[in-house]
Amino acid sequence: MLKENSMAVCNSIASGNPLGQMEPLLHSVVWSTKRLNLDAVKEFSDCIATYMNHSIYDIVEASPLVEIDVKYEQSSSHLLAEEKVRYTYRFSN
Q: Full-prediction pTM beyond 0.85?
């Protein structure tokens, strides 16, 4: 979903307009950054931090906008690291 709406996200950030339905997705991906340790996710989150808010990493830790499914999947000890990556990739596309 983020990939399909990347221009809308960029336009919203550039213009200072609210992100609407994209905000929970952005929060969820940024929240999962340190849990996944993937370069592509880190680069995306760093870009969001640069253009949106430098404190985004701190903000998302307490954000109610992070999708509960993402929190569950990333904190589940029964999942392998590869499964967590696949889930987050599927969620962000």
A: no
